[in-house]
Amino acid sequence: MATDIASPSASAAAKRPGSYDLPGALKESAITAGVAAVLAFPFLGLQANNDGPELVLLTRWELFFWAVAVVFVGRMLLTVFRWRSDARAKSAEGLKAFGAKFQRYNVWIGLAGAIFAFTLPMWPFADRYVVDIATTFLIYVMLGWGLNIVVGLAGLLDLGYVAFYAVGAYSYALLATMFDWSFWICLPLAGLFAATFGVILGFPVLRLRGDYLAIVTLGFGEIIRVVLINWYDVTNGPDGIGSIPRPTFFGYAFDRSPEEGTMAFHQLLGIDFDSMHRIIFLYFLILILALITNAFTLRVRKLPIGRGWEALREDEIACRSLGMNPTNTKLSAFAIGAMFGGFAGSFFATRQGFISPESFTFIESAIILAIVVLGGMGSQLGVVIAAFVLVIVPEWLREFAEYRMLLFGLAMVLIMVWRPRGLLSHRDPTVRLHPPGYVPRHGVEAQKVQAQEAELAAKAK
Amino acid sequence: MTTGNVLLDVEHLTMRFGGLVAIDDLSFEARRNEITALIGPNGAGKTTVFNCLTGFYKPTVGRLKLNHPAKGDYLLERMDGFRITQKADVARTFQNIRLFPQMSVLENLMVAQHNRLMKASMWTVGGLLNLPSFRQAEKEAIELAKYWLNKVSLYERADWEAGNLPYGDQRRLEICRAMCTRPVLLCLDEPAAGLNPKESLELNELLLGIRDEEKIGILLIEHDMSVVMQISDHVVVLDHGRKISDGTPTEVKNDPAVIRAYLGEDEDEDLPKEVANDLHMPSHAHGTGHDHGGGQG
């Protein structure tokens, strides 16, 4: 509502850069204050109090008027100082330039991030808590990267990704507890099972896209969870599966006193036992798994299958007209995305030592999807940043527990307003004929290109 | 009409959507090294013919036989959509351009070579290992893309997002993309729509070049008569799903049935003779007041 009113004053201000028109600003502020008053009256102006057995309604006019006044003055100041036409343009440009700059250095940022990640346990502040949080963070990064294949590259909106995470976790837990197989055998098997489920989900939803696909995948995620709860004989239902074997360092356990005839990790290195060893080992394990996911995605984007996924996202009919088999292409995206979800799931199981269906609720799917969408679909670095915002920041804000969801929502809204295509939405071509930033310098062709570029720039303004 | 190099043989093609007959018992041929134009008023069923040919629709009745010069015969009506391009090498473009707008120009042409590259990458395994055979195939694919980019002078803009190209270039890029699938039959759905006269001329040259250098057949739907009459070797005219004329551009141009279809008539009334004559030879003086009045439907 306020924006509709704002537009005439903005266009008036545009005539003289750096100016604003006072009546317009006053009108806007009054309208904003009016909206604030409507909202503030029930929230701030009224208070229900228990007076013995009765409920009495108190009015708090002072608080109410203060709130409305703050909104009025705040909006006025924003209009005068912040939303002047030039200030607005400058900030938008600055944001764009920042994004572009970030993009240019993203290899270096990625490398620096990886080095930091590898040295994290050696930093002085890295106590048990920090390494634990970092491990959780990396699980989400890996899940985000896995889902990025399905959502970001292939454009298949999957709201039930947690199902594959669950399949991976339960496959690992069941194989490890029933057959006593080691982590390194169970991990690929769990990935394979999850990929199989990806194909099973993929078949019925081949014809669906967008919202319809989202609803079906949402249902699939719930089906898996409900099966896990009710199939008591196998999954132990809501009680979950406990005492899942911990991973070993190629056969050397992280135990103070290993079983007869085996050697523990600290004995192998001849150092004292420290419970941190296992935490750090788990941290490195997920770091490597996540980096494998990343390396795979970066490579596969440049392969025909990756380009096929992206083309499928852009236009399925055109893909068919070029002889691409859309069924296989979609199923492969589902299967590979699911496989990485399965890997992450088996890591989760071995780390926790206990899993139950409660860990695989819809909210997990929503968080993973939010990570991918906020990060910028298809952007690997964007996923890391979004995972940081959605996993680490709420951890810091633990004191404000009640406001966490509020802040979460606010962050979502802000990103959707400022960068509707995600934090890092820029896409680099997977194959080039010319270096980045290439502008032809001579010939008729160059003139044509320059004219068109000027036209594009004019359009962008 | 020689039958030796018939590339596409459409026999008794009929397509019904419920009670609506979109194509009614249509038979025609398209030959190699020739441009066959499919024309007709709006709603005549031209695009439906294309959709049947390229597997987007399954024809109700009829046979669509493709005599592939290297691989033998294919019955297109029995094949899945994407396999028609994959196996029988029939490529098409769309009336409303269907590029991959957020991918670069070069990537659009690489996707067109998906099947060959997939095989070379051993369904991704070899590609992940970056085997030399894959690198070789990729290099060849880029070379083919470069060849076509140079043809339509898009080489300098190969790394642009395809959606940022001007309209005329998008049209030509779509034709290049279809050519990168190495087709034996290229089906173009209104390639000149929305082009200015200069671009239209360039398009004519491009299409004649494809016909003469690639030795393939082109099937063309077009409304722009300057394109149709200048470049096509053979014209098939449709009206209400039926073939009303078939022949060289000159023959078709002078066919009274065609004129009637384009200018309209009353349902059960033949065109008055003098009006038909009028339409043929507008220079003849028959008086100016009455000539078109009887013919308009």
TrEMBL record, chain A:
InterPro entries cross-referenced by the UniProt entry: ABC_transp_permease (IPR001851), LivHM_N (IPR021807), LivM-like (IPR043428)
Listed GO CC annotations: plasma membrane
Organism: Caenispirillum bisanense
Entry's localization field: Cell membrane
Predominant location: membrane
Lineage: Bacteria, Pseudomonadati, Pseudomonadota, Alphaproteobacteria, Rhodospirillales
Record carries keyword DNA damage: no
Protein name: Amino acid/amide ABC transporter membrane protein 2, HAAT family
Taxonomy, superkingdom: Bacteria
UniProt keyword annotation of DNA damage present: no
Membrane association type: Multi-pass membrane protein
TM helices/strands, residue ranges: 25-44, 64-84, 105-123, 129-149, 156-175, 181-205, 212-232, 279-298, 331-354, 366-393, 400-418
TrEMBL record, chain B:
One Pfam family of this chain: BCA_ABC_TP_C
Cellular component GO terms, alphabetical: plasma membrane
Molecular function as annotated in GO: ATP binding; ATP hydrolysis activity; L-isoleucine transmembrane transporter activity; L-phenylalanine transmembrane transporter activity; L-valine transmembrane transporter activity
Coiled-coil intervals, chain numbering: none
Segments crossing the lipid bilayer: none
SUPFAM superfamilies: P-loop containing nucleoside triphosphate hydrolases (SSF52540)
Gene3D superfamilies: P-loop containing nucleotide triphosphate hydrolases (3.40.50.300)
Domain of life: Bacteria
A GO biological process held by the record: L-isoleucine import across plasma membrane
Keyword line: Amino-acid transport, ATP-binding, Nucleotide-binding, Transport
ABC transporter domain segment(s): 8-265
Family: Belongs to the ABC transporter superfamily.
Protein name according to UniProt: Branched-chain amino acid transport system ATP-binding protein
Organism: Caenispirillum bisanense
